[in-house]
Amino acid sequence: MEKIECKACSATVDKSIEFCSSCGEWLGLSIKDIEGSDKQSSPEVKRRTRPPEELLSQPLSNYGATSLPTRTEVPGIRAVFFLAIIIPLIAAASYYYNQNIAEEVVEEIQAIEQATTTSTSTTVQTLLQLQYPFSCSASSSLGEGWSCEKIYDNEPSSWQDNGSECADATLEFTFSKDIYFQFLTYENIEDTKSFTRNHKPRDILITSEEDGFSIEYELENQNNSSQWIDLNTTSSVITIEILSAYPGEEVNGAEPFPECAIQEITFYGRG
């Protein structure tokens, strides 16, 4: 029977037993033998960093690789060349548009805006509006509290002459510019007692700076509402002459006033 030597105690024992009969050590290969055996049995592997020269000299088709595509086989290449040409052309066209066409459009817009502004201004000027005199004058006045300015102050105050019973009375209204006067409204004194006791214009003559224009009008002897008189004349001055009057009357034994009185005259026109 083959004998082996125990690695631990150097005793000679049979090869068939697994543990040493002298020291009890396992009779298999020691760790050093295993490490030495692994080094001898495992050959060193070297990693290739590049294919061998004999392979590099051969075409790729020999190894089943697909050939590289040509320019005609890749439509993307033609698209790239197309874009490289068309983009500069578009940029140049845009620059030309901005420098020329855009300026023309801006000029047209400005012309439209100017025309719109002019049209709006004309429309505003042609609207029928209440027109206030710049100043006025009268043939006579009872005093500062009864001046001709009281005729267009939108108050219940009134103009009254100096006791002339409306005889030869004249009122002249001046405006800041020529106006197309369409009509005026006339109002007698609102207070009933004062209306009754004062003299009131009856027949009046209206003239303007327009050649040949004159209107003779008979006013009503009432203070219930405004009286409308059409004018239709263009002028900066309107003159009213009192041709005749309604006389004042007694009220509860109180004597009539000798003054001629007008509460309000309102002008309407365009311009």
Characterization of the model:
- By secondary structure, this protein is an alpha+beta fold.
- Among the domains are: 3-39; 131-270, Jelly Rolls.
- The protein has 4 helices and 13 strands.
- The chain has helices at 31-41, 53-56, 75-125, 192-197, and strands spanning 3-5, 12-14, 129-131, 135-138, 159-160, 170-187, 200-201, 203-208, 214-218, 227-242, 245-246, 261-262, 264-270.
- Strands 3, 4, 6, 8, 9, 10 and 13 form a 7-stranded antiparallel sheet that branches.
- The longest helix has 51 residues, at 75-125.
- The termini are far apart.
- The mean pLDDT is 82.
Whole-angstrom Rg = 62 Å
- Provide the CATH architecture of the domain at 131-270: Sandwich
Structural class: alpha+beta
Please give the CATH class of the domain at 131-270.
Mainly Beta
Assess the beta-strand content as a share of residues: 25-35%
Order of helices and strands: EEHHHEEEEHEEEEEEE
* Largest sheet, strands/sense/barrel: 7 strands, antiparallel
Quaternary structure type: single chain
Number of strands: 13
CATH topology of the domain at 131-270: Jelly Rolls
CATH superfamily of the domain at 131-270: Galactose-binding domain-like
Helical percentage? 25-40%
Number of helical segments with 4 or more residues? 4
In terms of per-residue confidence, which ranges show pLDDT below 50 for 5 or more consecutive residues?
none
Global outline: elongated
- Tell me the distance between the termini: 146 Å
Average of the residue pLDDT scores: 82
